[in-house]
Amino acid sequence: MTNETIQNKLTEKFGEKLTEWESPYGLLSFRAPAQMNVEVLEYLFNEPTMRFQFMTDLTGVHFPDRKGEELSVVYHLHNLVDNIRLRLKIYVPVTQPDVNTASKLFSAANWMERETYDFFGINFVGHPNLIRILNVDEMDYFPMRKEYEMEDPTRRDKDDEMFGRG
Amino acid sequence: MSSELQTQSQHHIKLSEESLQKQTTTLNLGPTHPATHGVFQNIMEIDGERVLETVPTIGYIHRAFEKIAERRPYYQITTLTDRLNYCSAPINNMGWHMTIEKLLGLKIPKRVDYMRVIVMELARIADHLVCNSVVAVDTGALTGFTYVFQYREKIYEIFEEVCGSRLTTNMGRVGGFERNFTDALFIKLNDFLNTFPPVMKEFETLLNRNRIFIDRCIGAGPISAERALNYGFTGPNLRATGVDYDVRVAMPYSSYEDFDFKIPTGTVGDVYDRYMVRNDEIWESVSIIKQALEKIKKIENDFPEQKNIFYAPEADKFHLPPKEDVYTKMEALIYHFKIIMGEIDAPAGEVYHSVEGGNGELGFYLISDGGRTPYRLHFRRPCFIYYQAYPEMVEGGLLSDAVIALSSLNVIAGELDA
């Protein structure tokens, strides 16, 4: 099984809905519409020729500059039989970050989705217990979003211009 | 207690009617319980000795590594990886360096790969020794623990010889090592390889066929292969269920494809299987280290000029020049400052790289936008992913089984909470 065969099969099944096909460093990566994520994951899980039944990783990324699709959820799946990985990405707006939960398909997704909610505020619809996991329950913001500075935001000594550029 | 006293003491504590009627006990195991080896809290509902329900609370030592990493130059993130699974810090360090090397597209010389393999396998032995001897302690056998810890000490002495530190090692650089292996290191390593196997043998004699140990461990905290895969288990805990997934074989890195070793597996995934898989892996690691030494010797015989290669020449902009040059040569001084001030850009790209850590697949998902710091860095921490199966593994079992199940999973709080 190669990246091309996976891409062909997925295109056959879902047509033009899957986009942004690329293989950075050999890892097949593509984008699905946000509301289709579970549909694609279920197909990859159940289809006997695909067998992507191991969830390696699930995490979020914040792109404040992409208007209307600021938050991204990235899934890494592994087919342990044919030993091949792939990466699925979906994008949702920061104003309404609703994503269907994958925890019914993968038990592993339970805590990983809680972590992604905890840090990015992505609302996993249908998750059995979507509460904060690493941060305190009283926290009222999502710390991994880019608007929250690591250090004192008035500090300039680590800006790019201090390193001869920018 | 007399009835008068009872009424008096109950006067100040207002218990709800529900809790007075309740037949089970709520037990708060942790966050700092002596039986849990780390900061884990489990709120358990127990009926006598039987665990009915447990709810793990995590995050007590969360240190926001992923957020901090977005502000740090690449080589400064190595110190963060130290503090994930601190029982085998060099594996984390090198996994991170290999991620950057993948992003940069560097080719690493074989000798450096083998040097890394030696250090990583030593770290794996240290990690498994801690886990297995602590399982024995939790079943009541302290002797093995005090015995094998001398050899963990010897491993740390070797780490000290490589990089100067022991627990949180910050070992190596992008492209290889900060300095070459010394002669003293090879002496210490050979000493370890000669003296450790008999001790390990004795440790196994003490426990493997020990009636008390077997009775305590077999059937405690089991998980099926199917559930383990669905829960995202990796490493020895997955292999104990019978699935032979090992990143070193499935997706070889650092020239692991050159080595000849077995992947030990178990059958039912209980505490005893996990213990046995780790023991067998220690023997495989010893064999891998011996093979790596042979290979290094062969390279040095065939190409004597390679004796001084300890990092990839193309990675020189990540490599601090030797101190004597920094003090005497202008160029070296400039490069030293450029590296220390973090003035090195990495190309834009998106890369996932994983290594076989002490506890399983330790992954690094890195998005670089071309700056001197990552745009986003996510650690796939094996402990975090498999610890969520803990309630399923211990519910219905005995409380004392829950304790050894936790130690045999080898959940490291630093890795769990990032």
Gist of the model:
The complex is a heterodimer of chains A (166) and B (418). With 166 residues, chain A is an alpha/beta fold.
Give structural notes.
The complex is a heterodimer of chains A (166) and B (418). Chain A has a single domain (3-152), classed as NADH:ubiquinone oxidoreductase Nqo5 subunit (Beta Polymerase, domain 2, 2-Layer Sandwich), CATH 3.30.460. In chain A, 20% of the residues lie in helices and 25% in strands. Chain A contains three helices and seven strands. In chain A, the strands form two sheets. In chain A, strands 1-2-5-4-3 form a five-stranded mixed sheet. Chain A has a two-stranded parallel sheet with strand order 6-7. In chain B, 51% of the residues lie in helices and 10% in strands. The radius of gyration of chain B is 24 Å and the shape is globular. The two termini of chain B are 48 Å apart. The model of chain B has no long low-confidence stretch (mean pLDDT 89). Classes of the chains: A alpha/beta (166), B mainly alpha (418).
Number of separate strands of chain A: 7
Number of strands of chain B: 6
**Considering DSSP H and I runs of 4 or more, what fraction of the residues of chain A is helical?**
10-25%
Using the coordinates shown, work out and report the CATH topology of chain A: Beta Polymerase, domain 2
